[in-house]
Design brief:
Strand content: 25-35%
CATH superfamily of the domain at 193-296: Trypsin-like serine proteases
Structural class: alpha+beta
Number of helices: 9
Helix content: 25-40%
CATH class of the domain at 193-296: Mainly Beta
Distance between the termini: 97 Å
Number of strands: 23
CATH topology of the domain at 193-296: Thrombin, subunit H
Strand order of the largest sheet: 3-4-5-8-7-6
Radius of gyration: 28 Å
Shape: globular
Largest sheet: 6 strands, antiparallel, barrel
């Protein structure tokens, strides 16, 4: 009896393994569907719990709390849930500007060939960008370069409504701007934490490229903390290979849960089209800038008043330095905060409030994030001795107006 049961078990096992081999060889997708069906509910539940736990700040912006676990969705068959969650929050931004006509109607030759220019209707140029609904009461994030030259601004929502918008404020240094529309109960996006991003994380870029309509592209985080690109004064970009084209500027970069982790800002391209190198402003900067614009109409960046110079290998050899990190203070502005605190030309700036200074760009970003009027603990190297200074942070002067 036992021998018969053993033979039946062995035969059933052999047949089962044979069927598994055939299915895995000829129809492997069947197995992936079975395995993913068990994973999908838990992922969806974790995503829903993450969104539900997000809290709102004084601007009505909802963001995941610090320390909250954010589930990372592995490579699935679809990111439709993430796209569906974020897409209603992404809008198209149209700006128009009236061009001034040049030329004199007193020139008889011009009147003969072109008529009287004063009798022509003024020409208007319309530009396109994207934006992200940051709060349900009508605050919208976009890029400064999208709206800076516009006389009139209009926002097109995904429900086909098109409404006028006014500029609350802008920050050219970070290329961010905040718009306001007179609508309530808008589908505001939920902010994620760009600080938790890793190279290789899946991201979706959402916007309206070339005015073809709302478009979602997928890629990964290619790099973090990109600087020295010459795009903005203050740079700390997320680099992604998700396709970003003209019209995507100001749109959303979201993670695999549909949480906002950046505002799309620029691409690297010689042709004008996407070549897989795009840049987004992380939410760690976006939240800081938006909060100031909403409350004061502008952004107050910290300021030391020094002229930095990056340490090069040649400088290390010439000055016989024992380290290649830090920034040489090439000059100190008269009556500037750094000068009043005792900083001198030739000092090597090492740390600001405990954060290491690696180059002039990192130094500029660290100083810009300081609150004017507060005191910053700064460590410098002077003649082989480390010295601690306490600098009362000034306010960075606004950039000159573009005419």
């Amino acid at each position: 009896m036992l021998r018969r049961l053993w033979l039946l078990f062995a035969q059933a096992t052999t047949v089962g393994l044979g069927l598994l081999f055939v299915v895995s060889t000829l129809r492997p997708q069947w197995l992936s569907k079975v395995s993913m069906s068990a994973v999908q509910p838990s992922v969806a539940a974790a995503r829903a719990a993450t969104v539900a736990s997000a809290s709102a700040n004084s601007n009505g912006v909802r963001q995941v709390a610090i320390g909250d676990p954010i589930p990372r969705v592995s490579a699935l068959d679809s990111y439709a849930d993430a796209a569906k969650q974020a897409m209603p929050s992404v809008v198209s931004v149209y700006t128009s500007k009236q061009l001034k006509r040049t030329g004199s109607s007193e020139d008889p030759l011009l009147r003969q060939f072109f008529g009287d220019p004063n009798g022509l209707e003024p020409q208007r140029v319309i530009s396109l960008g994207s934006g992200v609904i940051a709060s349900s009461d009508g605050y919208i994030l976009t890029n400064n370069h999208v709206v800076q030259a516009g006389d009139e601004i209009a926002v097109a929502l995904t429900d086909s409504r098109r409404v006028p918008a006014h500029l609350v404020g802008a920050d050219p240094d970070t290329d961010l701007a905040v718009l306001k529309v007179d609508l309530q109960n808008l589908p505001a996006i939920t902010f994620g934490r760009s600080e938790t991003l890793r190279v290789g994380d899946v991201v979706l870029a959402i916007g309206n490229p070339f005015d073809v309509g709302q478009t979602v592209t997928m890629g990964i985080v290619s790099a973090l903390g990109r600087t020295n690109l010459g795009i903005n004064t203050l740079e700390n970009f997320i680099q992604t290979d998700a396709a970003i084209n003209q019209g995507n500027s100001g749109g959303a970069l979201v993670d695999s849960n549909g949480l906002l982790i950046g505002i799309n800002a620029a691409i690297f391209s010689r042709s004008g089209g996407s070549v897989g190198i795009g840049f987004a402003i992380p939410t760690s900067i976006v939240i800081h800038v938006m909060d100031q614009i909403v409350h004061t109409g502008r952004v107050h960046h910290g300021f030391f008043g020094i002229e930095p110079y990056d340490i090069t290998p040649e400088l290390v050899d010439a000055m016989r330095l024992k380290r290649n990190e830090g920034v040489v203070v090439n000059g100190v502005l008269r009556n500037a905060p750094a000068g009043r605190a005792g900083m001198e030309p030739g000092d090597i700036l090492l740390t600001i409030n405990g954060s290491t200074v690696t180059d002039s760009r990192s130094m500029l970003n660290l100083i810009a994030q300081l609150e004017p009027g507060t005191r910053a603990a700064v460590r410098v190297l002077r003649e082989a001795h480390e010295i601690d200074l306490a600098i009362t942070v000034g306010e960075r002067p606004p950039p000159p107006a573009v005419r």
